[in-house]
Specification:
3 helices, single chain, mainly alpha
Length: 110
């Protein structure tokens, strides 16, 4: 047997050993997963926030986000649901320059 064949045989044996080891562990892992799912499902029911709590958390996050954006000089008065209106105001010249660059790039899904 050549060195290459010997190395290939050793690699094949190593892969077979690892595969056998992994396959032997699968039943126990499946049991653990089933147990974990049952535990996490019941735990989620215990700590699920009420709609009122979720709304309060969302309002808090939105208020803090607006505060930070205002601190960075962004106009947050026109921000709608889903962040519509976010972004810095740009001038007409800057918008035309960006359109020109996109035009030079050619047709695409921009």
């Amino acid at each position: 047997m050549t060195d290459d064949e010997n190395t290939a045989a050793q690699s094949s044996a190593a892969v077979s050993a690892h595969t056998s080891s992994i396959l032997a562990q699968l039943p126990r892992l499946k049991e653990m997963l089933k147990s974990l799912r049952a535990t996490t499902d019941s735990a989620a029911l215990l700590v699920a926030p009420t709609s009122r709590q979720a709304d309060a958390r969302r309002d808090y996050v939105e208020a803090q986000t607006r505060r930070v954006l205002q601190g960075q000089g962004m106009d947050v008065a026109n921000i709608g649901a889903g962040g519509a209106g976010l972004g810095a105001k740009i001038g007409r010249d800057e918008a035309q320059a960006m359109e020109g660059i996109l035009g030079r790039l050619g047709p695409s899904d921009h």
